[in-house]
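Q: How would the structure tokens look for this protein?
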Amino acid sequence: MNELEEAELQDNVAEMERLMVQLGWVLHRQQTQRLKSHNLTMPQFMLLRALQRLGDSCTMSELAEAAMQVSATVTGIMDRLEERELVGRRPNPADRRSYQVVLTPQGESLLADVDQDNRERIAAYLRTMPANGRAQLLQLLGGYLAALTQGDGAHV
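A: Here is the predicted structure in token form.
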């Protein structure tokens, strides 16, 4: 790569970095607002989503690890979600001293509503683009995600 190409690359890197930071903040702010309309906070949503990913049931420690939260924080969030009947706790058959956490049908339904809201927002944006632009955007985003996660064991 010659000096001119390297300078152009560095300009591209700086612009991509600026756009990615801005995109991250905008997406986070918008997601927080959408969750508010479902009477959810971001930590509550992350816990529900982690529980959904883990499947049928899990222990509180497994949930805390999957949600990347400390157990004490998870307990408080679980209490609030349980009051709303979005999650439940049942005795752990493998260890009578602990409980398993389950996502209730109401919790599944709420996550489905959040997902539908997200899909509608994305569809509204994609409708503004020609089909070849959508395909190109998806290809570029997929390539960037693959490059970011290559070799780090990340599962998305």
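The mean pLDDT is 91.

The chain has two domains: 1-37, 38-145.

Upvote if useful.
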